[in-house]
Fold:
Amino acid sequence: MRIALIADTHGRLDDRIAAAVAGCDRLVHAGDVGRGIADELAGLGPPVTIVHGNNAPADAGWPETEALELPGGTLVAIHGHQWPARNRHAKLRAAFPDARAVVCGHSHRQVVDRDARPWVLNPGAAGRTRTYGGPGALILTAGPRQWRVRVVRFGVSSPSP
Structure:
């Protein structure tokens, strides 16, 4: 099963990210979606899971966390703004010790931390806001015995005229 992990679109999903994740079995957005993006994600095809970020409208109705049972374990999605950057990975691991991986956003920085379980995965910003080198995503392949993460990263593109 292939799960596309994205975050921090802030109202703009980069077209290259949309194309890269369109063939996945499921899409998980780790918060700070922005106006119109939920509908755009729904149009890509796979089932979509979205969690509430610190810049989401209060009435968005998205949960703060979501646990997805996947082949081989549980993936927890949370935005990550609940904890300061210092020791965030340790706090996520302590909060979700039974998960195989935690996907979070908020920092806009792409990170694949597999040093301990649960893994902490941040796909980076999938839009234009603070992409730190270009928009990114992660593709998680979840099997009963093995999970793999593929990094998707594109260079910064010029704004459209």
Q: What stands out?
A: The chain is about 15% helix and 30% strand.
